[in-house]
Amino acid sequence: MYQLSKQIIAWLSVLLLTFLVAAAANAYQPDAPYQQAMQENAGNWAKEDGAIDARLADLEKRFGKKPNIIYVLADDIGWGELGSYLGGKLRGTPTPNLDKMAQQGMQFLSHYSEPSCTPTRLALLTGRHPVRTGVDIVLWPGQTQGLAPGEVTIAEMLSAAGYHTAMFGKWHVGDLEPHAPENQGFDYAYYGLYNGAIYSWVNQDAFYKTQTVDGIGHFYDFPGTFEDYRKKYGIEILGALEGIKGKGRREVARMSAESMVDMEEQSIIKIKEYIREKAKSDKPFFLYWASYAQQMASSPREYRFREGLDYRNNQSAELAQHDDYIQQLLDTIKDAGIEENTLLVWVSDNGPMYSFWPVAGYSWLRGAKGEVYEGGVRTPGFAVWPGMIEPGQQPLDMISVTDLFVTAARVAGAGDHIPADRIIDGIDQLPLLLNGEGNGRRNYMFYYSGKDLKAVRMEDHKLHIIPGSRGGLPNYEVYNIARDPAEKFGAMYHHLWAVVPFQRMVGSHMGLIRKYPHRNINSGLF
To answer: In terms of C-beta distances under 8 Å and separation of at least 24 residues, what long-range contacts does 58-64 make, across chains too?
Structure first.
């Protein structure tokens, strides 16, 4: 009997070990600080996750399918631009519909993007810091870097979980067809390849040929037309594209600054049609709208002269247009009867681009687009989900744009489709969305600029890495972000106690990079 019991125990041990190995093989690989947090909070989080799973199961039983997911990525809107972030009419940028959206759900006070547009899009699409994907620059026409086919996108993950997928607006993660949304998991896409400024290059020739030139064009040396550019440099600039999975893409409109307005309008028209159609399907849908609003290429005249709007600020009119379209989006979701089964998240991709000031956005925080100071990476954001997310919340919990990838996987029950052979920087933040402030699972951030790690946040403390040293002393700036969100007082000497804890956290982060190296796409594609 004793011998039999030993055999049973041995057999159970082997079975348990096999299960744990299989589970580890299928589990996603987060960064080192989160792996530690998972170990420390395993018991409490398991109980919390069980309750969340029960709520999701009840919702699926009620609607007969998984929740729909809509992610809206705005452009260059700083922390302080919207009325809900102390801007609005005070800034000449009234945003009544976005402000109402903030009140209807959860308004993030500590949402973090990457410091510029291409990186943030890659982070949202893959759940990874862009440097891991092999792309470490903002892309321009003619460059061959881009979203590698070997990356697993949120659209591919959700498609595998049974979702319809669609993308609208500013793609900006690669020009070549293998990079394109229809080849990266999206069933349908209506999009432009570049940032909005590029579409206004062609307007400069006509500007300078007018009888009277009042002022200076932004891109005064652009060589005439897009055709002139192609002949001179061998780079073709494509217009609005329509892509269908398995069928490729086609150009549906040539682009200029004027047609930018039309593309944004066509996007919301197509988005509303898509939602009405897919709401009737027995499958849920994922919709990614990367709005071209707040791009400096053009502004719609009919929005410029609204009461309270700074009509000389091109982007104020674009933001007014976007604000109206957001309300149309919300109305369409409600009219389709799916608002209680739809998670809607709106965030900005980075802070304001002051290079074109005063035709630009604004932030109350130090820094701007391209910088890892708070003004460059801390951006507005909201999440709305009636019946699931309690309205009127303003949590201080940190949330990263990479978190949207893993959170979508949790909502969709697609965790098995998260790749396990690479580091995923995103964290499941559904506990924050459903349980409120204090339930976020992120207490750290890594801030990259291109290839370089430029800053690290550990709870309330943020360290900026300054090149060089001072006689062997560490050369850092350290801020208490809770006390000093504008990063005005960063003397290192008050924070010498934090030097080694920061070094250890960075060391664990770098250790995993050695284990899971960044993708190398110097060849231009893979």
So the answer is: 59/340, 59/341, 59/388, 62/341, 63/338, 63/340, 63/341, 64/282
8 A C-beta contact, residue 104 and residue 384: yes
CA angle 80, 294, 177 (to 5 degrees): 130
| H helix intervals, 64-202 | 96-104, 117-126, 130-133, 154-160
**Tens of pLDDT along the chain (526 residues)?**
444 444 443 433 333 333 333 333 347 899 999 999 999 999 999 999 999 999 999 999 999 999 999 999 999 999 999 999 999 999 999 999 999 999 999 999 999 999 999 999 999 999 999 999 999 899 999 999 999 999 999 999 999 999 999 999 999 999 999 999 999 999 999 999 998 888 888 888 888 888 887 777 778 888 888 899 999 999 999 999 999 999 999 999 988 777 777 889 999 999 999 999 999 999 999 999 999 987 766 777 888 888 889 988 888 989 999 999 999 999 999 999 999 999 999 999 999 999 888 888 899 999 999 999 999 999 999 999 999 999 999 999 999 999 999 999 999 999 999 999 999 999 999 999 999 999 999 999 999 999 999 999 999 999 999 887 677 777 899 999 999 999 999 988 888 899 999 999 999 999 999 999 999 876 444 4
Of 213, 233, 215, residue with least CA distance to 223: 233
Total count of residues recorded for the chain: 526
User: 3-state SS string over 146-169?
Assistant: CCCCCCCCHHHHHHHCCCEEEEEE
Tokens, residue 391: 């309205």
Report how far apart, in Å, the C-alpha atoms of 223 and of each of 218, 231, 238, 256 are: 13, 10, 17, 15
Q: Give the H/E segment covering residue 12.
A: helix 2-26
| Main-chain phi, psi angles of 48, to 5 degrees | -65, -45
Contact 298, 261 (CB under 8 A): yes
Q: At what angle are helices 257-278 and 314-335 packed, to 10 degrees? A: 10
Q: How far is CA 375 from the centre of its chain?
A: 16
